[in-house]
Amino acid sequence: MKKAFDVVVAGAGPAGIAAAVTAAAQHRRVALVDDNQRPGGQIWRSGASLPRPARVWLSRLEASAVEHLSGTRIFDHPAPGVLCAEWNETAMELHYEKLVFATGARELFLPFPGWTLPNVMGAGGLDAMVRGGLPVAGKRVVVAGTGPLLLAVAAHLAARGAKIVAICEQAPFARLAKFAAQMSRYPGKLLQGLAYRLAARHSRLYCGCWPISASGSTALESLTLRQGNRTWSVACDYLACGFHLVPNLELAELLGCRIQDGFVAVDDLQQTSVANVYCAGEPTGIGGVEMALVEGQIAGLAASGSAEAARKLIPQRRRMLGFVDALRRTCALNPELRRPAADTTLVCRCEDVPFGTLREHTSWRDAKLHTRCGMGPCQGRICGAAAEFLFGWGPDAVRPPIFPALVSSLAAESTNPNKSMEDA
Amino acid sequence: MSETWDVVVLGAGIVGAACARACSLRGLRTAVVESGAIGGGATAAGMGHIVVMDDSEPQLALTRYSQQLWMALSDRLPPQAEFESCGTLWVAADEEEMQEVRRKQRVYASLGVATEILDSRALREAEPHLRPEMAGALLVSSDAVLYPPCAAAWLLEEAIHFGAKLYAPRTVVSASAGHVRLDGGTELTAEHIVVACGADSVRLIPELPLRKRKGHLVITDRYPGLVRHQLVELGYLKSAHSLTTDSVAFNAQPRRTGQILIGSSRQYGAEHTAVDHAILKAMLARAQLYLPALGACSAIRVWTGFRAATPDKLPLIGPWPADETLFLATGHEGLGITTSLGTGRLVADALSGAATEIPLEPYLPVRGPIEHSSSTHPAAGGLHA
Prior knowledge:
The complex is a heterodimer.
Chain A: E1 2-10, H1 14-25, E2 30-33, H2 52-63, E3 67-69, E4 72-79, E5 82-87, E6 90-101, E7 105-107, E8 120-122, H3 123-131, E9 140-146, H4 149-159, E10 163-169, H5 173-182, H6 187-199, E11 204-207, E12 209-215, E13 222-227, E14 230-235, E15 238-243, E16 245-247, H7 250-255, E17 259-260, E18 263-264, E19 277-279, H8 288-303, H9 307-312, H10 314-331, E20 346-348, E21 353-354, H11 355-358, H12 364-371, H13 383-391, E22 405-406, H14 407-412, H15 419-423
Parallel strand pairs in A: 1-2, 1-6, 2-3, 6-19, 8-15, 9-10, 9-15, 10-11
Antiparallel strand pairs in A: 4-5, 5-6, 7-16, 12-13, 13-14, 17-18, 20-21
Helix pairs in contact in A: 1-2, 1-8, 3-4, 4-6, 5-10, 8-10
Chain B: E1 2-10, H1 14-25, E2 30-33, H2 42-45, E3 49-50, H3 57-73, E4 88-92, H4 95-110, E5 116-119, H5 120-126, E6 136-140, E7 144-145, H6 148-161, E8 165-167, E9 172-176, E10 179-182, E11 187-195, E12 211-222, E13 230-233, H7 236-239, E14 247-254, E15 259-268, H8 277-290, E16 298-309, E17 316-320, E18 323-330, H9 336-351
Parallel strand pairs in B: 1-2, 1-11, 2-8, 4-13, 11-18
Antiparallel strand pairs in B: 3-7, 4-6, 5-6, 9-10, 10-11, 12-15, 12-16, 13-14, 14-15, 17-18
Helix pairs in contact in B: 1-6, 1-9, 3-9
């Protein structure tokens, strides 16, 4: 199956939705591609109790002429202007004049003894499951990790009746205070933070604190927390744990976009180093929803040839860059977080590779080859970032398929008519 | 600072590791130098098929010799080497290819390799997912598969256990006249320098008759039992592969994990590691032709590698005439995993002045033309790297 569009937008989170809606308003034929069934990305997943901007943009998407290709997973980029995707076990070829990718970010998980127990979950992951209907009323929940997401998740779970036993932020108090002070430049964000804190006001916020082990017979029953030299245990039913976000860069790397300091390098119009390819949202820097929406609109306009209109939004984006920076500094991980992992703690859950086995190796590639770490179906998406933090190993080069794809889909790929271009 | 050794092996791929093991077992003071991960080059890209091949008499001699050495070692290999005696099935698509099956059986029998001819029905029982109209196959039960990087690491561990010293990750700056210079200024002095750097050997000796021959491999998610033997097509009769152009052939291997490795492709003149979509597509189309069920399997990774290919498809094992302190152990094309152990023994015997168990002459770096058997198997020697 072959489909051609003026603009293909990869990723239907806030940045992707904004880009697609904006480009469609410029009368471009637009596809919005995402492997989830519903638009919204990780942050606006599922319809219930969504914030106002989400409702606004989702209804704009609904009303637009954007062709929403849901349940469609992009796995390869065989030639400039072409993406290969899979939908319902069927191979699909997407041709584009311009591409906007807004592939979002994923939570960083750090291994500690017991982290693979049932009911130890990602912060965003538990939040999404609760939005999807998991009841948490009366359940004791610890929220741990780093970043503003923790407060948002705690507030939401508290509103659903969960008892938030503790909120553990790895950043020290001084850094959080500095961050809060900087937020005076972003009153909206400050207010939102306060509202979250207020909603979870009955729970205690510990700074410079993180879980060092989890235990339970068949599922999580208790957690040991550490703050400074003090360690103590708390009984709990769920741990919502996330050490901030790492950008999804697989497609960026496959496309050959320049990556700088861990993020996709873009100019003022969100143009990447590759012709006709734009990037918006978290892959350019973790900045949250508002930033993603502005970047998405800039990219959507620029990809539609409306550079003038796009430029008008640049100041809005620039104002928010300070926030991205402050967030990055605040969430910088304490090196002490490398210590909880024991030799027997699994790092790679696909291939059951423990920390102690990995420690004997000298590089990510070396570890992969000799332990199978990162060689499972998740392709190292979870353990790769953890290994990078734990051992300082840089990632391997990205190769297609960037997601598992059927053999028949790989065999159906269109081939580059100008092979030499690829080999160049 | 200079350290003195009997033998310095350059390269800790599976061939280098096997050479180091054999030399240190022989009591030679041995050092090994590797710039990257152990078994991280063609070894990691290879399929790990231990296969007896009969393109030429010397190839048959070396692969058979090596396969027997692997069998002898198999009980001692660690679990992560994933050694499985699954055997090879040479699949014949039609009656014409069945004649080749019978010819092959005679050749193998002459060396004492037991084989069994499967007719169409027996083949269906042995491999129910193969396309049912296949004419039959030759089963070579003594062939096996393993996971090459871990096998190489184990061979190296053994070498170290017997006294070898590993320099890694260290890059060789120069190697000649009994001297090896490493980055950082270390000088090694050796009576013999074994060059086992695969296709990269030309970096040290530009005149070597080696070319990179690119290959692609695909690995699937876990489908235990879908494939039971290493499957290789005999279909070269129709696809008329030549030694010079790009080609693909059907090759599928069951891993201990239940995953399936799919090959194979061969390309000259492709120096870039990027996946070549045209070749990948052709390779997978061919694989599905033989094994239709593969189409519905989830492929989780694709990778490429470079075989070190010689004009006559035989490795280069022996002293390099221009500098007799250099002893070559390279050019193993797609058979380096199989022939690593045989190569190691030939090297150790030659360097310690012992008689080799098979004649070394056919593999000497300077040699006359080789007589190939009427057929050549483009498919096996696997996609390997």
